[in-house]
């Protein structure tokens, strides 16, 4: 078939730029949209994908990225999300190495740069899909649709729905289209399959890049090879995942847990219509759409059922035009636009397996290319028939996209602005209120956090994480009764919630319910075997009950699981000191300082032990080292003064008593010791006189 220039291309109200100029403009537009996120923080799930992901650490064997999922969990684990993206994790690891640590600016800059490069490459992709590329007499490539492909690439570069993919570090989506010369080649097909495999190791949707093979001739042979290659890749991935899908809960994707098939189908289609609306009007964007953000349609009288019907009417209209139009260029453009819109979305459609979200803007990254292609055709078609205001309308559409993208990427710079922006979009989403509350609590505003945690629990009465965090704040505010009720409810709802069991134990200990507290601590340890903080709190309980040996064993377990657990080490030294086991206390203190050589609290406790053993010189050294690290601790000055007092260095004792009283005039015992010293000094002066 001889390809010709689409008649509507020259009607598009854009200047006809050369290949280099159009690429520079597209890259610049992509940069302007998202550059303000370059120095943003790690936000939302970045804490799990980046900060807490041990696979990024250079000390972790590189082979681990091929065994673990995107979040660093073993693929065979029941808790794994089965998101196998080793090449994406490898890019994170390279970022870590180049930046010398977890500095978000390097991650953000690479994301923005990738989007700019992809946007530029989309010019050629769109040119091939619309009208193909031809070569002049010198072999140089010529586009038959320079304006249309340029406009579609500008729409793609500036689409606000890309903000999550570009401005969020823990996601690295990439899109590509495989192109070569005009002749069909088996070698080219195998190259396509190889690149598809690489794409799948970056993102699950990589399998859909095989649609690029549809552009060429030799259709039946090509389809057969691509089908076999794609099937092999899907089978390989299924084996890597452990031949089982990930497990999700009802709050992640409520439609997939609906009572019957009809309800599921209706709600899935409603989700599709919402995704289409985000492409068409990307104003209501949210970092999370779960937990009641999109209530289920449960009745035929629900007015929202109109939206999936409208979506399918529009799709059927486009399909009809793509199949039956007399214009071959129109058929080609709309066909590839629909294919690029629909195929990459299929993995997120719930048709083949349950997904762990209601709506996820990130999965629209590649699908948006199909939408942008159809939108560019619509602009060209309208420009042919309505000459008035076509320039201003097109520029306005582009400018609105750029402004919205810049605004949205600004919101993704910090968790505070990101979570706050979601309150107006998804006011029924319990997770939004939870995250706003958690961010406020992390910044020290616990009173405000309580309000949002309460709202999260009201919206979703089984939200155990909100109950746990709210219970913690109430515990710190000494509202112990309500804290106990909340934490008890949390562990009843989710019996294996180890953190809630531990926090319940702390509350019960404060309420003097010692037997219940001990049982809660052991429940926490039963569900999380390696739980050093729980062993530490269990030790505190035993210390309160004067069960010294049990307390020491619990704290020793804490330090074995977490060798730098300062509080556990220090409590062991103090307990042994209080029970008169000074030699053992000295050994434990020195063992702790080998692991924590700059811990001034352990130095202070060890110095007290050595002082009681009359090892004054060694004790003095630890006191002075502790004060060098933290010079404003009144008790340290006071105890050093007592040491000098016993040692007979009365002038030094006087100086440190005075320093202690200056820092804390009400320090217990210090004033009495100081007065005793002054009387001793006065007596000495009178004796000398």
From TrEMBL:
EC number(s) given by UniProt: 2.4.1.109
Topological type in the membrane: Multi-pass membrane protein
Subcellular location: Endoplasmic reticulum; Membrane
Enzyme class: transferase
Chief location: endoplasmic reticulum
Origin superkingdom: Eukaryota
Transmembrane segments: 112-134, 184-201, 207-235, 268-285, 305-323, 335-357, 363-382
Keyword Cytoplasm carried by entry: no
Keyword line: Endoplasmic reticulum, Membrane, Repeat, TPR repeat, Transferase, Transmembrane, Transmembrane helix
Gene Ontology BP terms: endoplasmic reticulum unfolded protein response
Family from the record: Belongs to the TMTC family.
Listed name of the protein: dolichyl-phosphate-mannose--protein mannosyltransferase
Organism for this UniProt entry: Cyprinus carpio
